[in-house]
Amino acid sequence: MLKRRVFIRTLMMYTGISLLSACSQKKTELTWNQSLYNVGAQSSPRTTDLNQDGVLDIVIGAGKEELGPISNGIIALDGATGQVLWEQAANAHMVGSATFYDVHEDGVEDVFIGGRNHNLKALNGKTGAVIWEYERPDTTDPILQYARFNFYNSVLVPDLTGDDRPELLTVNGGNWDALPGSTEDRFPGVLMLFDVMDGRIIAADTMPDGKESYLSPLYIPGTNGLEDQVVFGTGGETIGGRLYLVKLSDLAQSDLSSAEPILEEEGHGFIAPPALVDLNQDDILDIVAVSHAGTISGIDGRTRTLLWQQQFTGLESSNAPAIGYFNQEAGFDVLAILCKGVWPDYSVAMQVVLDGKTGAISHRDTLGCYALSSPAIYDLDGDGIDEAIISTNRYDCEMQFTEDLRSPPQIENQVLAVDFKRKSYRPIDRSTGFRNIYSTPWLGDLDDDGYLDIIYVQNFNPNDLTKFLGMSMKRVSTAVRMPQAPIWGSYMGQSGNGRVPLK
Asked: β-strands 260-265, 442-444: how paired?
């Protein structure tokens, strides 16, 4: 009860909203603030209408400890009120973000979500009841014996079994007990296809280089004579790896031997999912990848050759890139976040904007400390140039953490609207005592009123930066008009599949 009272008091004393200005009769305001106790989120919010009231609802993964059981590992909140619609238990932290598909054809999308300790669950969107869940096979199979670690994010791919239903693409990998810098207890990641209806494994194969994998794979639809492909990656914070392309048809045969390596790093891997966007305006999706070594690459989707590349010495990244219009020139640009230091000892977080055509750096700044969350993008002032909504943590970024000192004595989470054109930022929220390292905000129109809504998470624990005693999820309804939906308003893009659709 003491921890609960402290959490409530902290929330009441320090949460404040700074209004986004706009020429509108509508006010920017905090619509609701849902407090959830003894739980926190590394997952990012995703939205769909679960209760059929015309307002999008929110689904997020959660946990208290990385591998500890939790009664509310997956949480669904009413988008109109913030009240809990349903919760589902898990035996470890559900770090993935939700994928949606209407299995029952009842008009409500069902939920697919992954997490640590081989958690992969399909849940009824109306009730949260389990439709199916992955059971770790007791096997010596040369492939499936390794599918016993973490699941991350999933995406849908076209039907491969003839039942007119998509399949679920994801990866299993990353041994939590492996020590930094050590090659011991490192096992190959497994790229997997599941039947959305019953969780049957359709295809699976280990990484071609035998390395671990943390990168959420992406599906690239075939266009202009190209076949359907999958992009996936290997390596970790201290283990070298590659970024690969493979034909979906080859994966469907459980065969990654023909996978083509398109990038490689020594001593670092590819952890964050790439972004798929047409950079050179040839009507083919190109690949924007950020390696853990701090190398940002634009790769031609047709030729698999480099369009451009920028390397940032002394910086590392596990943050997914975001796509938007940040310069006056036509065409998409790239926003990436990198952290100064060597994992796991990071200080400041740097935001870098790259021209999508040339890779030239058009903006570079540092806002806040170490963070693994990614930006969400929208044109807030209607001038044709996008702003970024970024969750940052303010504390002494240079402080050294020890076993006895696991959290800064003073910390504040800020949600900022960053204007790269004017080189300015406006605070949306400042909450003292809270932090957010992992979760990306969501931008969109929840209630279809033509105005932008912002959903975000703030976590609480005064004693340990990486553990959770509670979290606050908030909805801010803004006065920003929305003539069109965001193209990159959430983690891995608006549809959660890492793609900016071709025009």
From this structure: unpaired
Structure token pair of residue 24: 């509108």
Concatenating the DSSP letter of every residue in 306-336 gives: EEEEEE-TTEE--PPPEEE--SSSSS-EEEE
Half-sphere exposure of 255 (CA within 13 A, CB side): 6
Tell whether pTM > 0.70: yes
> Does position 1 have pLDDT exceeding 70, yes or no?
no
- What is the pLDDT at residue 23? 52
Gap between the Cα atoms of 282 and 408, Å rounded:
49
Give the span between the Cα atoms of 205 and 212, in whole angstroms.
12
Which tokens go with 143? 């492939």
- The pair of structure tokens assigned to 282 is 């040839």
- And the tokens for 125? 């969107």
Calpha distance 216→131 (Å, rounded): 23
Q: How many CB atoms lie within 10 A of CB 24?
A: 13
Is residue 366 within 8 Å of residue 350, measured between CB atoms? yes
Place of tokens 């392309």: 245
> Which run of H or of E encompasses 246?
strand 241-247
- How high is the pLDDT of residue 465? 85
Per-residue 3-state assignment (H helix, E strand, C coil) for 141-210? CCCHHHCCCEECCCEEECCCCCCCCCEEEEEEECCCCCCCCCCCCCCCCEEEEEECCCCCEEEEEECCCC
3-state secondary structure 362-428: EEEEEEEECCCCCCEEECCCCCCCCEEEEEEEECCCCCCCCCCCECCCCCEEEEEEEECCCCEEEEE
Instruction: Please state the φ and ψ torsions of residue 340, each to the nearest 5 degrees.
Output: -80, 130
What is the distance between the terminal CA atoms of the chain, rounded to a whole angstrom?
54
Whether 438 contacts 60, CB under 8 Å: no
Q: What are phi and psi of 417, to 5 degrees?
A: -100, 115
* pLDDT tens by residue, 425-449: 999 999 999 999 999 999 999 999 9
Interval 85-101: pLDDT, tens? 999 999 999 999 999 99
Q: What is the DSSP string of 424-493?
A: EEEEEEEEETEE-SSPPPEEE-SSSSSEEEEEEEEEE-SSBTTS-SEEEEEEEEEEEE-SS--SB-STTS
* Spatial distance between the Cα atoms of 408 and 461, rounded to a whole number of angstroms: 10
Give the integer Cα–Cα distance in Å for 91 and 88: 10
Residue type, 233: G
In SS3 terms, 254-311 reads as CCCCCCEEEEEECCCCCCCCCEEECCCCCCCCEEEEECCCCEEEEECCCCCCEEEEEE
